Structure prediction request, 188 residues.
Amino acid sequence: GGRLGTDVEITITGDQLDDADVLVFSDPRLTAKPKLNVAGQPEPMKYVVSIATDCPPGIYEARVMTRLGLSSARIFSVNTLNEVVRAQPNTTLATALEVPLNSIVNATMNVRAMDHYAFTAKQGQRVIVDCATRGIDSKLDAVVVIADAAGRDLLVERRGDVLDFNVPQDGKYIVKVHELTFKGGSEQ
Prediction:
């Protein structure tokens, strides 16, 4: 996703996309051009998406044109909040990604990983955390936890709903995102 009126670099992934040449959206106010390297050549699977200032915030479909035809749709989200893109692993308290309040984080999650995000808040503030996987067609079934700075759980959401957190005291807090995995069967 991206913020209204900005250009966002994205990387596409999937099967049989080696010859992808055009990225199209369900709204003409979203456009994409291949990202060029320093030699002026297109970088494989990378695009720069331009989001017009008059594009309404919301969810849009994105598709890739390849030699085999148009791909299935994936979701691209347009919003008005500041965006933070995770560039480094954040799988421990020590590597928690600092996120300002009133922000959106765009990230992918590794299988069986736990990602950590840190925010600072004041006593009495109300902080809403929404791991918006369902709305963007993600396969992630997340458990989201708000913890204190030492990593002790304060509030847990196991159903993928929104966390509504009233900050008990000034300080740093951690949001932990777990992948919920349950596979049936028996061990041999």
DSSP finds no helices and 17 strands in the chain. The mean pLDDT is 88.
